[in-house]
Design brief:
Length: 118
Amino acid sequence: QVQLVESGGGLVQAGGSLRLSCAPSGSIFTITTMGWYRQAPGKQRELVATITRRGSTVFADSVQGRFTISRDNAKNMVYLQMNNLKPDDTAVYYCNAVTVACRGMNCWGKGTLVTVSS
């Protein structure tokens, strides 16, 4: 099993920045790609950004150029740096890990709330 714990959410004004962290534990050696997803009220969960073990990244068009994802393989941490935040970025942000150690090869954290005020 792999467990994921997110931190770093909070309330920020539009134009501000936040940094989310995700700390995996358990069978972390089985993790391949990690990423961040978000779910706004009344909307489906959507991809924000992913990063492979080698550092290849993918970003949603809506956050390209504003968000950065990074991964510290030594500390087994993944980060999401969010700059120039907009009210539309308000959502619960979930850490994701692709691993055979979880059902459906996907593990999820419980989420951290990001609220961007206008």
